[in-house]
Amino acid sequence: MDSTLGLEIIEVVEQAAIASAKWMGKGEKNTADQVAVEAMRERMNRIHMRGRIVIGEGERDDAPMLYIGEEVGICTREDAKSFCNPDELVEIDIAVDPCEGTNLVAYGQNGSMAVLAISEKGGLFAAPDFYMKKLAAPPAAKGHVDIDKSATENLKILSDCLNRSIEELVVVVMDRPRHKELIQEIRNAGARVRLISDGDVSAAISCAFSGTNIHALMGIGAAPEGVISAAAMRCLGGHFQGQLIYDPEVVKTGLIGESREGNLERLASMGIKNPDQVYNCEELACGETVLFAACGITPGTLMEGVRFFHGGVRTQSLVISSQSSTARFVDTVHMKESPKVIQLH
């Protein structure tokens, strides 16, 4: 995957973010998501590639675009043989979330972004639309903290790894009833909790950047977003672990499948032999090359949101590459109108 593709995926997330941001604060989360999907798909289909969506707009609502298994890119067209050399073409797996945090956009809250991850075919874990227990932490704690340990134990380990007191640590947790005991344990241990309503991809990635004042992500969120987070953390050298949650009683809301037994059968049909396996980021994003891109829709910890001005739009994006070992912040001005010609008299 060459550098040209890296530049083009920035434009993919930029266009999705711009489209969604037009609906910021209007209370229309479904519309904010739909326009992001359409913009992302339209720009993807202008890239010289053969891509396959492995995580996308999904199983909950039978999405017509960017659904799991959809092929995207110029080289998926019927007439592709005339301009795509199959011997030179790399097949790409793509995980997308065109509007991560739809509620955040709808109500004008911080932290929403358009996001995707890509790798060569087979390089991304095709996570079902289940939930996932997650643990993200900075690179200094990689391999030291463990999802099977209690929050109290992991906070002590983090404290040692980061040379900070537990009282100085900030842990992000999704504000959900299922996390009531976890939140209390973190507070009892002495750390501070930052509750978020949506958008845990940004929280996970923020752990890998110093200066964000986010030192861990703990708790249960959506599994597809877990894979996208893992792709970024793989590139950044951060710690990420995920474990699929298939029991509806654990999450109490929204899980695909009405029974534990039915969900176990579904996992088995997908070839997941050990449903309780703990995956690290190298397993969730195992490809030789992994690229991650995000663009802020509303302002967040890492990026500014989309800003409209007369005649244009300004965006801020982040692209992370395992190939070049870089994390680039890209500030872009999109000029929508030609400058007016000044008449000299």
From TrEMBL:
Catalysis: reaction(s): beta-D-fructose 1,6-bisphosphate + H2O = beta-D-fructose 6-phosphate + phosphate; D-sedoheptulose 1,7-bisphosphate + H2O = D-sedoheptulose 7-phosphate + phosphate
InterPro entries referenced in this protein's UniProt entry, alphabetically: FBPase_class-2/SBPase (IPR004464)
EC number from the UniProt entry: 3.1.3.11, 3.1.3.37
Gene3D superfamilies: 3.40.190.90, Fructose-1,6-Bisphosphatase, subunit A, domain 1
Record key words, sorted: Calvin cycle, Carbohydrate metabolism, Hydrolase, Manganese, Metal-binding
Cofactor: Mn(2+)
Any Pfam family matching the protein: FBPase_glpX
GO MF term set: fructose 1,6-bisphosphate 1-phosphatase activity
Pathway: Carbohydrate biosynthesis; Calvin cycle
PANTHER family linked: FRUCTOSE-1,6-BISPHOSPHATASE 1 CLASS 2-RELATED, FRUCTOSE-1,6-BISPHOSPHATASE CLASS 2
Subunit structure: Homotetramer.
Role description: Catalyzes the hydrolysis of fructose 1,6-bisphosphate (Fru 1,6-P2) and sedoheptulose 1,7-bisphosphate (Sed 1,7-P2) to fructose 6-phosphate and sedoheptulose 7-phosphate, respectively.
Stated family: Belongs to the FBPase class 2 family.
Protein name: D-fructose 1,6-bisphosphatase class 2/sedoheptulose 1,7-bisphosphatase
Organism (species): Synechocystis salina LEGE 00031
Gene: glpX
